[in-house]
């Protein structure tokens, strides 16, 4: 193992006791909830699905999760009421068939997440239409109206990213979601141009001939043209989202390797040896970040420390060192946290990975994959979040690029019966509107300090809070702050003493 890596890990382990006692007050703690390939929903009534969602979200809250990335457009279809695309086959069993009785999973999840102080990120796939060649599209699907903007590749059907109408349709779908739903963000994963199929070319020659030259690309620049097609989609999406609701964020979770060192004459690539976003998927994520087209980046670092082709440590350091605009979160595969530590085989890599996340300057949190497994507590993973790494709530880091003005503080904080109640005035400015409130509790004799995560009791979405019975006779002091839609926090309220 590299001397540098060993020294870094030993340094991180030297801070382990710190993690046992404190957690950051500001940290993104997301979880992906995927719906693609789901075979359970179609076999049970809506109430059972809702009960599953509620149980999952309750466990998320207990585990310190503050953002749910919920897949609502897995295959050019919808887990919500839409006039643009058919109901998803993964909800009712057949594409285009509405649930009976009708209900809206996206709206349900927004409401349930917000009441728990969590964000809801609507996760969409831009190009995938089918996952295999046996799936049947609904007769009203866009494919039957405009087959020319689609391409078959391998056993799947995709939008052709080079067709302007394909871009326009995706932008229209996302605009519809943002306009009608109170989502906190739009989220895309790593599927842009298709992952390569062995010995098969993605045949987009027709659209390249049709549009490439007019867009300024010569015949030898097809790969640059492909990257430009994806960049055009990303820019148009961000422009559209921000025009509708300037506080709604746009985030991407790309494959973990941007470019390998061997493919970069300037030496800018990572010391890895695998598929890359830039060469194979035609996604130039750093360009999007530099241009302000996306607000956050979640590279999927689904490997262990010491992986021969894609070492976790190498990649997290590369993304951190690149120091791009926007917020950087790490896409974490839960299973890799059970891998044995290289330095101490009696331990797992859990502590080392979390130490890297929290010590690297430009890393702002994690997103856990798959989120569903958090409910199952694999190898004690969830217990570790609850009791150590996410023991206290955390506020998502503020998106200062969108809004850096803190909301007005709450006022008239008082205790009435078993509840704290308060008021807030945004002055009619949606950007300064309090979407959430942070409730702090300080024992008597402790100087109030809202920067200390230990005393952040809960994040709520209403101007009231039910006080739990005290565990001792010592008085407690409660303080409340307002948190706006870009996660700026107000100055603290006056403290209210509760005996």
Number of domains: 2
Could you tell me the radius of gyration in angstroms? 24 Å
What composes the largest sheet? 8 strands, parallel, barrel
Per DSSP, the total helix count is 14
CATH C-level class of the largest domain is: Alpha Beta
What's the CATH architecture of the largest domain? Alpha-Beta Barrel
CATH superfamily membership of the largest domain: Glycosidases
Structure overview:
44% of the residues are buried. Helix content is 28%, strand content 19%. A hairpin with a 2-residue loop joins strand 4 and strand 5. The chain folds into 2 domains: 3-389, Glycosidases (TIM Barrel), CATH 3.20.20.80; 411-498, Immunoglobulin-like (Sandwich), CATH 2.60.40. With 499 residues, it is α/β, with parallel strands linked by helices. The strands form 4 sheets. The chain has an 8-stranded parallel beta barrel with strand order 1-2-3-6-7-8-10-11, surrounded by 5 helices. A 4-stranded antiparallel β-sheet has the order 15-14-17-18, with no helix packed on it. The chain has helices at 3-14, 16-21, 46-62, 89-92, 105-115, 142-145, 164-180, 205-211, 222-244, 277-281, 285-290, 312-322, 350-359, 381-389; strands spanning 28-33, 67-73, 119-124, 150-153, 156-159, 185-188, 249-252, 296-297, 300-301, 327-333, 363-369, 411-416, 419-423, 434-443, 456-460, 464-466, 476-484, 496-498. The longest helix has 23 residues, at 222-244. The radius of gyration is 24 Å and the shape is globular.
């Amino acid at each position: 193992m590299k001397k540098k890596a060993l020294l870094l890990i030993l340094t991180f382990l030297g801070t382990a006791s710190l993690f046992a006692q404190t957690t950051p007050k500001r940290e993104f703690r997301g979880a992906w909830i995927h719906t693609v390939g789901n075979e359970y929903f179609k076999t049970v009534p809506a109430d059972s699905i809702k009960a599953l969602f509620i149980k999952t979200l309750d466990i998320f809250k207990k585990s310190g999760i503050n953002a749910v990335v919920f897949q609502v457009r897995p295959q050019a279809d919808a887990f919500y009421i839409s006039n643009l695309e058919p109901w998803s086959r993964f909800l009712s069993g057949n594409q285009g068939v509405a649930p009976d009785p009708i209900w809206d999973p996206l709206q349900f999840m927004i409401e349930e997440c917000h009441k728990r102080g969590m964000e809801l990120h609507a996760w969409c796939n831009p190009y995938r239409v089918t996952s295999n060649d046996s799936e049947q599209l609904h007769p009203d699907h866009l494919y039957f109206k405009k087959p020319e903007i689609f391409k078959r590749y391998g056993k799947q059907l995709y939008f052709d990213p080079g067709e302007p109408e394909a871009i326009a349709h995706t932008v229209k779908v996302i605009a519809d979601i943002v306009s009608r739903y109170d989502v906190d963000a739009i989220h895309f994963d790593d599927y842009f141009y298709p992952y390569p199929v062995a010995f098969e070319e993605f045949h987009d020659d027709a659209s390249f001939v049709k549009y490439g030259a007019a867009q300024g690309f010569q015949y030898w620049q097809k790969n640059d043209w492909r990257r430009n097609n994806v960049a055009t989609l990303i820019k148009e999406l961000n422009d559209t989202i921000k025009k509708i609701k300037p506080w709604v964020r746009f985030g991407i979770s790309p494959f973990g390797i941007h470019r390998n060192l061997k493919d970069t004459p300037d030496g800018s690539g990572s010391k890895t040896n695998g598929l890359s976003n830039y060469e194979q998927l035609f996604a130039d994520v750093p360009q999007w970040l530099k241009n302000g087209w996306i607000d956050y980046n979640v590279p999927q670092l689904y490997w262990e420390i010491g992986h021969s082709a894609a070492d976790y440590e190498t990649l997290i350091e590369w993304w951190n060192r690149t120091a791009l605009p926007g917020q950087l979160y790490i896409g974490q595969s839960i299973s890799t946290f059970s891998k044995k530590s290289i330095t101490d085989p009696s331990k797992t890599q859990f502590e080392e990975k979390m130490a890297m996340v929290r010590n690297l300057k430009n890393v702002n949190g994690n997103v856990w994959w798959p989120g569903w497994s958090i409910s199952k507590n694999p190898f004690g993973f969830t217990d570790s979040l609850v009791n150590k790494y996410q023991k206290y709530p955390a506020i998502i880091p503020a998106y200062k690029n969108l809004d850096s003005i803190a909301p007005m503080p709450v006022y008239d904080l008082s205790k009435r019966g078993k509840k704290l109640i308060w008021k807030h005035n945004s002055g009619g400015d949606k950007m300064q509107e309090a979407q959430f409130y942070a409730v702090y509790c300080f024992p008597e004799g402790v100087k109030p300090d809202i920067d200390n995560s230990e005393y952040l009791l809960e994040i709520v979405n209403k101007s009231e809070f039910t006080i739990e019975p005290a565990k001792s006779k010592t008085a407690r002091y409660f303080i409340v702050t307002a948190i706006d839609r870009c996660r700026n926090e107000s100055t603290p309220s006056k403290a209210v003493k509760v005996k």
